[in-house]
Each structure stands twice: as C-alpha cells, then as structure tokens.
Protein 1
Amino acid sequence: MVFKRTHQDGDKNMKMTPQRMAILEYLEGNTAHPSAADIYKAISERFPTMSFATVYNTMDMLKEKGMVLELAIDPDKKRFDPNPAPHHHLICVHCKKVVDIHSSFSLDLSENERNSFDIIGNHVDFYGICPQCKKKNKSGQQVK
Amino acid sequence: MVFKRTHQDGDKNMKMTPQRMAILEYLEGNTAHPSAADIYKAISERFPTMSFATVYNTMDMLKEKGMVLELAIDPDKKRFDPNPAPHHHLICVHCKKVVDIHSSFSLDLSENERNSFDIIGNHVDFYGICPQCKKKNKSGQQVK
DNA sequence: CCATAAATTAGAATTATTACAATTTAATAA
DNA sequence: TTATTAAATTGTAATAATTCTAATTTATGG
C-alpha cells in the first residue's frame, strides 16, 4: 500500500505533521510487523521529542482509516501490519518473526515458504459477527 | 480433553492442590476460552485466598504439559484454550467470543457455523521455525 | 498573520503479567 | 502418624504495554 503524504489524504481533518510523516515513511513497505515500541524506537532517533502517545494515536488513526491492521499474533504486545490486503502469516515460534504469505489460497504455501520454515502447525481464524452481536448491532451499539 | 485429578498425572513432581483442582475443574469442558482474569474471578469466589499468581503459575504448568494452549487471539490479553487438539476458531469481532471449529478441513465450515456467524474474513497463521532459528537452535538456545 | 481545531507531549493512571521471598502444604517415607 | 522436604501458594512489588489527561504547540484555512 502506498501512503500519500499530504493533508489531502481523503480527509481534510487529518493534519500532516512531521511525526506522522516519519511514521508513514517507516511503515511504507515495512514487512517486519513492528510493535509500537519498534516504531517508537526507530522514529525517536530522528525525533527526540517523539512521544509514545503519538505512536499509539497515529496507529489508532491509521487503523480507523484501514491503512494498517493490528495483529494479535504475539500474546505479549500488539504488532502492526501496514499491508491491509488480505494475506496470511508464517510465524516463527522462537523469534516471533512474522512473514507475509501471498499465496492465492490460504493453505497453499509456495515452495519457497515451505522450504524455509519448518512448519509445525497452522491455525485458522475466521472473523465475523456472532448471532448475539448481530442482534445488538441493529440497535446501534458497538463493543470496543 | 479429560484431566486426571491425582498426583499420578504423569509427573510425580506435580502436586495436586485444591486450587489446582478448582482450576482444572473450571477448565474441563470449558469452551469460553477464558482469560487469566476470568479464571481468577470464577475460582476466587470459592477460594477467597486464591492469588492471581497461582492462576498464572498453574496455567504455565498446564501449558508446559500441553494441556492448554495460550491463544493470541485477543490483542488485549492472553486467553486459554483447554482443548489442545488441533482446531480453529470463529471469532466475533464485536464481543470477542471465540467458538471452536471442529471441521476436518480448515476452511470448510459446517453449515451451522456458516449460518450463525456473519463471516467477514479469515486469517491463517502457520507456525514454525524460521531458517535463522533453525541454525541457532542447533546450538541450544531458546527464545522465550 | 490569525484563529482554531487537531496533534503532540510528558507524565500519570491503568491493566496485564511476571518476579520475589516468606509461608504453607502435599506427598513421601520412616 | 509424624517428620521431612520439595513444591505450591500467597501478598506484594516490579515491569511492561497501553491508555488517559491536560497543557502546549502546530498545521491548516481564511
């Protein structure tokens, strides 16, 4: 995904600040699935005044805009994926490295992917709205 | 999975305490994928002295024994699955309810599952050991 | 340049989890 | 039984990730 770096970015209410620019730049093409701390560390080198709150605020905004996904891959912290297109992951259970899978069909790994990782299992999550929430949702409420 | 409730449980070094008994009882057949807080809340009603540390200790032990899985489904907290057999999940993005899927093949949902949830997407995680860790692992080290 | 809504910031507060050290207890064997 | 002892439990402190807050700064539009 390509990020535009102007305030015209589909939303007049979105200010383009140097901090945001740095975050967008850092995320663009980044396939490391960084955590908030990763982002903070990388950016604060050039922006010593950068605050953690800004990282979280910006990621919230990008999530709402659908520009990044929040991953629940690591039980210890949130990690972000700047590639919002549907895809899957290859996760190293030792170092927690996360590699994108771009196969057309979920369980069909490329030869390369298959050979590089020793795969010990897989897990499929289906996301959706359960019957109870379907009902509730008609009356407008939203669970965080 | 059936939990035995004696100290013979495959490991002489495992003591069977009332607290553990209560936790095992609570987990047995539990399909709600409870968090540590859920477990604590349920058990501490009968065991007012129960400590959070005991919940975490016990879950660690059960994880090591392969009796529960730690799920990374909820970015906000760990949740536990007392069903260690390979299976997949149906997750409500509103209320975070997690329902087990017992289809023989991952992407083949039963009619019932399909009809109850409005499915808006799926995500496949493959777990394995990456090439770098394969090498490192030969020299014995383990990443938490 | 001004006005203003939005963003940034430092730091406090909260939540989940882990670490620790003292006390208690289950299991074993005498 | 009871004594021994390693393991479990407990309260509390410490840590880590995240969220909240209120004051200050800044990007944008006029």
Note: Residues 1-84 of chain A form a domain with the Arc Repressor Mutant, subunit A fold (CATH 1.10.10.10).
Protein 2
Amino acid sequence: MKPKKIEKDTESRILDAAKRIFIRKGLDGARMQEIADEAGINKALLHYYFRSKEKLFLTIFREELRNFFPRLFPVLLSKDLTPEMKIRHFVENYIDLFIKEPFLPAFVLREVNRNPSIVAQFIGEAGIEPEKLRNLLDVFATELNLTMNEMLHLMVTIVSACIFPFAGKPIIKQVLFDDNEGDYQKFLNHRKTYVADFVIHSLKGRLLK
Amino acid sequence: MKPKKIEKDTESRILDAAKRIFIRKGLDGARMQEIADEAGINKALLHYYFRSKEKLFLTIFREELRNFFPRLFPVLLSKDLTPEMKIRHFVENYIDLFIKEPFLPAFVLREVNRNPSIVAQFIGEAGIEPEKLRNLLDVFATELNLTMNEMLHLMVTIVSACIFPFAGKPIIKQVLFDDNEGDYQKFLNHRKTYVADFVIHSLKGRLLK
DNA sequence: TAAATAATTAACCATATGGTTAAACTATGC
DNA sequence: GCATAGTTTAACCATATGGTTAATTATTTA
C-alpha cells in the first residue's frame, strides 16, 4: 500500500498552487518562487514540470477559461423546459459557479484584457465553438420572439448581471454594503432569483410597450 | 513669445503617459522606463516629479476612479425628469463615457481586485460618499415603488450592463462578433437604448406578475 | 543488485527593474 | 555677470526575478 509515485501528486500540487496564485495575482503579479512555496517545493522543480512561467500560466488559464464560459448547450437545447425555466436555470447555475470560484471573473477579465489575442488562441481548447453558440442563440431568439440583435444584448445583459457582482466585489462591497462581507454574501444569494425575475419581467414588459 | 516654463508641461506629459501605460498594463505590467519613453523624458525625471512608481500610480488611479464612478446625484435628484428619463440619461451617459475611455472599466476592476483596500482608501478622494449615495438610492427606490434591496440589485444590474461590455470586450468581440471590431462598435451604440429599454420594460413587467 | 532513469535540490546566472547620485544645464533674481 | 534654485540627464546600484546547471536522492528496470 506504499505510494508508488509521488510525481503525479507533485504535478497536481503545482497546478493547485499555480491556480491559487495566478487567479489572485494574475500573470504579472505572480512570482514563480511564490508558486513553489505554495506547492511546498523547490523553484527549479517548477521548471522541471512546466518549462516556463508562461507555459504554466497558459495551462491554468486554459482550464479556467473553460470554467468561465457558461455551458449553454444542455440548458438551451432542453425540450422540456420553458424559456423562463431555461433562464432561471442558467442564472442560478452561473452565479453558483462564481460563489464557488469568486476570483474567476476578475482573473479572466484581467488576463483577456492584458492580452486579448489569448481569447482566439484558447477558445477552441476551452470547448467553445462561437458559430455553434451563435446558432444556439438564434434558435433561442426565435423561441422568445426576439431578433438576433436583441438576443445578443439579452445574453450580454444576463452574463453581465451574473459576473459583475464578483468582478466588482471590492467596489460593491465597500460602496453599497459599507464593507460588510455578510451583507454582500446575502446580496449574492438573493441575486440568483433577482436577476432571473428581472430578465423575465423585462421580456414580459415588452408587451406593455 | 518664448515658453517661460517647461516644467508644468513636463508634469502633464508624464501624467498623460502614465495614464496611457497604467490603464493598459496595470501597476504590475507597467514599466517606469516605458512611461518615461512614452513621455519622451529620462527615467530619473519620473522620480524627480513623482518619487515612486506607487505614488505615480496612485495619482493616476485616484483620478480614474473618480471618472469610473457614475455621477448619480445631478440625474437622480432632478425634479423635472420622470424616473424613466432618469434611467435613460444615466445609461446613455455612462456608456458614452466608456466609449470615450474604453479601457477604464478593465483598469479599475483589475486594480481594485489586486488590492481591494484601495477602494476604501480612495473613495473619499474620488468624490464618492457611500452614505449619501445610499440615501439617494433610497429616495429613488421610493419613487419607483421598490424596496431598498430591489433598488440595490437594480443599480448593480444597470451598472453591470453598462460596464461588462467594455471589461469583457476581448471575449464578446471574439465569441459573439467573430472578432469584427465594427460589429462590436455597432453593438455598443445600440446598447445605450437597449439597456434603458430593457430596464424600463422590466420595471413595467413587474405589474404583469 | 547494479545500471538506468526520473525526481528533487542548492547554488548559480543573466537580465530587468525600481530607484539613486552627482554632475550639467537652464532660467531667474539681484 | 553671478549666485541660486529648479530641471534634466547619464551613469550607476541593489535587488528581484525567471531560468539553468550540476550534483543528489529516489525509483524503475533488467
């Protein structure tokens, strides 16, 4: 029952450590020494497993970009959900994801703005196919009786409403909740139903034009 | 007609250069040499005018934080605007601001996440008074027949919808617009009316519950 | 078990970077 | 014209940082 190989364990220790450090500090702010310390290993070992900081970073980034992207296909294609339920599911799952990974939004936004070409570079590997996604949105637009343009705005609005509360946490918490973490967390929990309600009301409200 | 003093000019040249570099690259990514080059001066001169990178950065950040914060008081307190018009004004002005300063949202979000305490530290100097702001929102909530909780969500939702399209530009442009800058810009312009409409529909839609 | 291979470390290296110094240059006041 | 204070520069410094090397210690394999 002796552990045969430590290497595999070391690799995942490195990945865990790198993830924690990179997500909080970004590529520019992270130090290889810091990651080594966090993983409890020698700095040279980092370069033994991942040749360079860049390589290690991209390994982490690819994975986190995949997490970041909402997996719309299963929800939107479901036949036994009303449009309203699809929206509720989406919002709830997406906000829950960020409650579990609160630093993910700020991390991804920071890195794609540092180097925008990284998006095109990794979008495929992150399991996103823009064309298929746009087709999907087109179908959903029809279902909701929206133009594709309106659908794109709707999508961006929903995603914004889910992501910004996390990416803007320091500001929101300070300005709206007097730096009270508990109040801010309560706000996040309410938000799952609030955003869905808000969107659904808006779609209904169009009828009142 | 000879220029009497160059000094003042030098200082503003430095500030302009620092602003450009810091906003695009952040504190961690920016290099003092780069800022000096951008300003067309010697690196030592940077330290002559602003003792350290940190000091120079904070000078820029303070100013940009002030820009970033929506100036709600004049709009929300106006007596001759309907709530609907207040929302329309706010959204249009806020999005227009970011069309002029497209890197501002990503910059502020990056830096407040790098060092959250910077918000509390500079919120006063940026001309924001959280208490007064919350009072203002309370009044507006009454005007709209909303609870304070709903008002906070509404506020965050509107701000999210304005900011995220800029902070998330690399992703949105790539995924939704196949990397076409023109399409993305058109989207931003539509967005001014779309977001306002969306919010107003939602408030009306509540009646259809 | 001995050779071969993989994992790990301490010490090192080259370069980049924020920051300093001392000297030179410029304008201004007397 | 000269002294003084303010401005600008080239050269320099200490340190941090990503990365490498060579030796050491497991682990595998024949």
Note: Chain A has a mean pLDDT of 93.
